[in-house]
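Here is a typical protein record:
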Amino acid sequence: MSFLALPELLAGAEEVVGVGTRAVSEVEQVLSSEAKIAREAEGIASVTNGGGTSGLSSAATIDIEIHGADKAVRDLARISERLENLSPVMHKQITILEEREATMFAGGKYQDTGALMRSLTMSGAPGAVREVTPHGLKFGTSIWYAKYQVRDPGPETDQGGLKRAGHESAVMRKLTPMDAHRIAEESGTYAMHGRI
């Protein structure tokens, strides 16, 4: 089987989910600490005056209001939920990968029956491997002769064939750093804003 795996596409995605969860917890702690601060302020009920202590006639209170904290908690919870399941954006990447693969077969290259081309350019085609997980995807083909489609095959073997092991696939494009950056950026946009 020939495939391109993008497991755990966003390196440290689980760590980011943890950060989101901790942030929600910290905002909730700030909200609950409002009551604690008010209780501590009540402890300042007396003042030292000339060596003596006199009680204040009325209890001192401090009111603290945090504007937007509820929204921050809701927003962080949504971001955390989306980071736990990036499959919607992974499905978009399948379409992009299929379009890229179509360029590998341009002009009839690497085609005889067209089965290999269809398996890499059409999700529902026989032999198409498309597996989406919450943090990545597996994309490729199970067509048996895909492994023989390589760039610059090695020297001829004793049996008269060409050595192909260890050579770059001619039909499966590797992700460039630019591709990986774009996928990570799109995944981040989805996580932060819910847009695909």
In short: The longest strand covers residues 128-133. The helical segments are 13-42, 69-84, 87-104, 115-121, 177-193. The longest helix spans residues 13-42.
